[in-house]
Structure formats: C-alpha cells, structure tokens
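Progress against Task 2.4 (sequence-to-structure conversion) is shown through the following example record, which the project officer requested during the mid-term review.
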Amino acid sequence: MTIQTVRVDLGARSYDVRIGQGLLDRAGAEVLALAGRRRVAILTDRTVAERHLPRLQEALRAEGSEAPALILPAGEATKSWSHLGEAVEWLIAQRIERKDLVIALGGGVIGDLAGFAAAILRRGVRFVQIPTSLLAQVDSSVGGKTGINSPQGKNLIGAFHQPALVLADIDVLATLSPRDFRAGYGEVAKYGLLGDESFFDWLEAAGPTLSRDPAALQRAVHHSVAMKAGIVQRDETEQGERALLNLGHTFGHALESATGYSDRLLHGEGVAVGCTLAFELSARMGLCSQEAPSRVSAHFAAMGLPSRIAQIPGDLPDDAALIALMGQDKKVQDGKLRFILARGIGQSFVTDAVDAADLRAVLAQSRL
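Structure tokens generated for the chain above:
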C-alpha cells in the first residue's frame, strides 16, 4: 500500500499527516527533514517504549540524530500537573530550544501531554506526533488540542498547539490489545455518526474485520483524519463547527471522571456510551427516528464496545452527580450545558436546548 498524506491547511501552522505502513522505520528521514541539525527529544510511556522506542531511536540514529527519551508511566493519570512539570523540566535539562523538535511517541495521553509541554516550553517549541494507538491516529494527534486533566474534569487545562508533522504508522496498531483497538474504534465510528452516513454504512460492514485487514484499516484511518482535518481547517479553535467532534464526549468525559480515569472505562469506550446516549436523547426529543439509536447501539455491540451505563463495571455516582460532572465540560457557555445531538446518522448539531427531565430519563434508562 502507498503512504497517504492529508494536509491540514492552517496557513503558517499547516502540516502533513502521513498515513501508511512502515512509517516508524522511516521516521528518521521524515522527522529530520524538519529538524535538520537541531536537537530532537522523545516523550513516551513505559508500555510504548518497550514496543517501539528502540526502532524509533534507531531510525533517528541512522539519519545522524541521537534522540534521548523520557519514559513516563502509562495511563490517563499521567495527564497531570506533576508529570507535565517533570516533562518540561527534563526538556529544559536536554537544552531543547524553540527550533528543536519534541517527539510524542504514544497514544492520546502522551500526545496531549507532550504537545502541552511543547506549547509552554520557551513559549512554544515544535513537536511531532507519532501516534501508536488507533484512537490517537484518528483523533487526538490531529488538530492541535493539547492538555492535561484536572480532578474536576478532563482536558480542562491546555492550549492549542499544532504539530509540525504527524506520522500514523498503521503497522504499530497490531501491537494493541483487542480492548485498546476497540476503544480506538469508538472514535472512528464517531466520524460516521457526526457527519458521514455513507462512512458509517461502510463501517457496519467492514468494522469487525479492521484489525485483520490493513487496507481497510488504512482506509478508516485516512477517512477519519481527512474528516477531522476539514473541520479543523474551518474552525481551528472550536468556535463553532469543531464542537461536533465532541459527539458523545459530554457524556463520556463525565463517565471517565466518575470512574477516576481508570481502566474501568477507556476513553473510546466512554465515547461509545456517550454517542449512544446522545442518539437516545435525540430520539427522546423527537429529533431523530427511534431506529437511529438502536442502530448505533447494535453496531457498538457488534464491535464489542459498551453502549449503556449499566455495562460500566463498579459503582457510579447517581444521575444528579453525573449531570454535575457534565457541567464542567469545556463546551459549557454562560453556565449552559451544550450537547452534540443528531437529526439522524451523519447529521449532528450543537444545542443547549435540552430539557433536564429528558436528560435524566435517558441516563436512568441507560442504567437498566
């Protein structure tokens, strides 16, 4: 298969997303075409370092760059003030300057943390995303959102800082656990649900075989990235249309917070539950047919993903507490909670006109 390129056209902040097989082994040439003779430093986590760091460092070494690495703990809890401080201080100790490059090698956690560290170090250092999870390849590595979590909510602290390059090597996805792959798929399906019914139609047929079919997997990653790039180009800092990319996230982020950002609920699993809840709420409000949420939940079930709150293990706060957690969502404006709802598959929109009784009823039904 050929390597595909999606251009994220943002004027002086434009960059390429390269998608295909074998990109990790080619990363030295790809990255150093940007870096030249400048310093390169890598931020990663323990799990990813064991699987991929030696190959990346060897690829860079083959092009004449010795790139040191800081290896952080794996998991959502790493998106914290303490680990951000550790990363920034380490980069300063490595004498990383504005024109040097920071490489984020990992999933969404490392990409968000490393991007935020690069954004605030010396008021802005260039960085490259090498996403190693499906979720990061189709979502968090593209678009320039960086940040960490607060105890009061997910991604509440951060900055917009676009990468200089994204290298999405689909070969590395073969090292993911089945659960991590499925969780990433939650974000793939989201693109069809929010704005492309024909893509969702294709996913209903191809989704169960993606992990075994590199050509189909590359098509899914490429289409997802292209959709996100188009939205980001039109609304870089989420003043309007870009909020659609948060379909399912108002619910999902609240559920992640309620589970302590633990492995009880992975981000993509929360998105799957959240997307289903968004369609259930839409149907209850008469915005879409009753068949639409059934189709959404059936597809997530076919992919081995949860679609109901009742499928999340362990105790959860009551509905009032979940709604309070939603109130910390970044999309809140003037104290009003905004939801991404839908008039059908591929027809999402943003609204704050949601009746509290309808919201409580949908949450209660999802617990059964």
